[in-house]
Structure formats: structure tokens, C-alpha cells
């Protein structure tokens, strides 16, 4: 797989995470990979995505008043999932060399939102829990227009709005998991993305 993760881009990501804790990138994955991921979503029946739940471990429950998307975990034995996970492994190694973050493991799932669905404001990890260190969100929505909804809203720690990010095809968002509350606004058309989390050694728990 041809990777666009060169040293210049890795330096840019590392600098942004150090300075402000997040970065929004456009078209940094190979176009062939982005299109293959989109094609997989488009040709997967809705039934292959399970309803998303909240909570952890045995306390996971479905709460559609909080999140109403469907998810499907990536499979490293299948393409194009394997190529996406390889890209994220390159990102992990590059950030560990630059920031000594100790990132060890990565998990990710497709998220599929039908019209009217959403995910209320939440944190991916409680401060100090170390179960999720760095969050990634990659969008798979070509021809997304203003008014289609489904924006990713990123907030400061005091809940002040920081960024409103349209879920346009090829956009990759990376942010510190413990620092930024975020939400997905109700979408007015089908919306697809890949959400993922880097962890440190000794920490592993599916959401």
C-alpha cells in the first residue's frame, strides 16, 4: 500500500497534538484506500452493523437517546480494513518516535448513521483512566453539503465550542481522547465514518 504518511506530515501531526491537542487533516490517506473503504460500506448490508452501545464491559447498554448509530469492527484479516489498520500502525510508530506517547494498540469500527441519528456529547476516556489515549475519526461521505447535518462538534474542556467539522470524504480528525468532549449532530442523510482509539500497553477494553 502506498502511504502518504511522510515525515513532514508526521511532524505536523505531532506539533499540533503538542500545541493544541488535535488536528483536522484533508486527503491524507491514499485515494484508492479511501474509495475502497467507502465501497465496502456501500456494499455491506445494514444488518451487518450492530446497534452501538454505551458503557464498558458487562455494563454496556443500548441507549438510543444518547447514540443511535450502528457499528461494525474492522477485521485485520480482510481488505481494505487491513490497509487502513496498517496506515494507523504507521501513524502510531511515527507519533511514538516523536512524542514518546507509548501507544501500543489500536481498535476501530465503522460507524453508520441513518437520517435522524446522532451521538450526544461525550468523552472517549475519563481523565487519568488511560484506557484510550488518542482518538481518530475518518469520514467516508462524498459530496457532503452544508445542511446535510452530521457534523462532528469538538469542544474545549469547559464545553466551549472549538470546531464544527463537516464529515466530508477524506477528512481525518485526530485528538486527545481524555481532553475533548465531542458529539455528532443529527444527520439528514446516510453518514459513514471510521472511529478508532490508540491505547497504551496493558489497557484493552472494547467499548
TrEMBL record:
The keyword Oxidoreductase applies. Pfam families: 2OG-FeII_Oxy_3 (PF13640). GO terms for molecular function: ferrous iron binding; L-ascorbic acid binding; peptidyl-proline dioxygenase activity. Residues 99-200 form the Fe2OG dioxygenase domain. GO terms for biological process: cellular response to hypoxia. Signal peptide: none annotated. Keywords: Dioxygenase, Iron, Metal-binding, Oxidoreductase, Vitamin C. The keyword Oxidoreductase applies. Its cofactor is L-ascorbate. This is 2OG-Fe(II) oxygenase. It comes from Shewanella chilikensis.
